[in-house]
Fold:
Amino acid sequence: MRPYPEELLRILQTGVMAHFAPEVQSTYGRAQIAFSMLLFGVAQRDYDSAVPDLLEANRALREMLDRARTALDSVPGEEAAAASARLATLPAPAATPRLSALRTEFDGLRAAICELAPLLERAADDDALAPLREARGAIYDWLAADARRRVVPILSA
Amino acid sequence: MTEGQLAAYLQERIPEARDVRVSGLARIPGGASRETWSFDAAWRDDAGDTVERSFILRRDPPASLLESNNDLEFELYSAIHGSDIPVPPVFWIERDGAALERPCFIMGRLPGTTDARTLVASPEWADLLPQITREKAAILARIHAFDIACLPGLDRPPAPERSAEHEIARWERTMRADALEPQPVLELGFAWLKRHLPPPPERLVLVHGDYRTGNFLYDRTGITGILDWEMAHAGDPVEDVAWVCIKSWRWAGDDRVGGLCSREEFIRLYEDAGGARVDREALRFWEVFGNVKLAIIFITGTKAVTSGKTPDLLLALTAFINPGIEAEIMELIR
Structure:
């Protein structure tokens, strides 16, 4: 049904500017109006791509964490074994393409990276963790690219 | 809060004043950790002469980016005012909301503006940038020379060699308390920081904690005041130098730190003004730390606005600054 949600956001943005902004006199109030315009813009930008972005992110994260688990299995020691066991309990893929389900999966996969962080960091120069380096590189590359993808240009130096 | 409330408050605080009038009450945008209000007051003194003063009121919001500590900031301004570090005079502190709805303190309004983008981008200010840059570096050196024994309320690590660990622990606690979702980049940042601790400082100094272009007042005479001390603590002076350098404050959109000068030029000016020698490995550590800290400040703001504690849209907006900070962290720790 029209208007679609992203169209509705644009309509709200236009309405705020047309009806409310002229009434606001204080510098503080005008600043809040400006912030709301930027936020409407962010919501519009993210709305259409949210589901495919999460589907792709979850696929990529799961694949990298599987590679990390395979690498850890060739590292001796209890710490690596514990990390591998943790990676064996990744959340199941979302059963539906609803945003809430995809976000839950996404958060579960990112939580696994959080727990792996000390080992990933040490793998840079600890030869005992050398098998983990390839997965480390892939995870670091993905996190950097994901951060750059989410940058809102007007808010970044 | 109304002009009438403020007039009544001033009348109570300045008993000798007659016919207190307050005008121009306006909230200043920004100040995400505290509300900042500006107002003018006028009254007649005992001799019948008119006295006019301009004030700034810093008031706790319903929620903020940081758990603020009015007592510390009030103590800092009180101790520093009159030294060679320019800060406004402070007059009154209210530790509960009985007088003005929420805890607050009131200080004098100094001349000048804090607008960072105008300073670095407008031709109007171009001729003043070299002076501002020198003063910014020299004042930082003076802050680091200030005697922290005068500041009993200042948080401090148990020893200089624990400065970095102390700050890591503080901000890791904040992240664990406030993050609404897993933060893999920040976890990797903390893992890196713990494995790359810097050489300790020779001694603990007063660290401003948010020393950047945008947190000082300036006018045509140069820097007129250093503001926003709520993250001040005792620690490693390089922490402040690195904060000056982080990418988020490069307002000119190029490599100039604070939008003012090259990193090496700022360090030279700071050291020449009597600042501590800046170890480059320590600088790298504190630059990673500064980015992690800034991201956590915005995470705290996200929690405040998402939970409905505050309607301040600035806090919602700052959440979207974090992807750029995360990209910078990944660049620095690879």
About this structure: The domain at 3-108 of chain B is CATH 3.30.200.20 (Phosphorylase Kinase; domain 1). Chain B touches chain A at residues 26-30, 181-185, 187-188, 190-192, 194-195, 247-251, 253, 312-314, 316-317, 320-321, 323-324, 326-327, 330-331, 333-334 (CB under 8 Å).
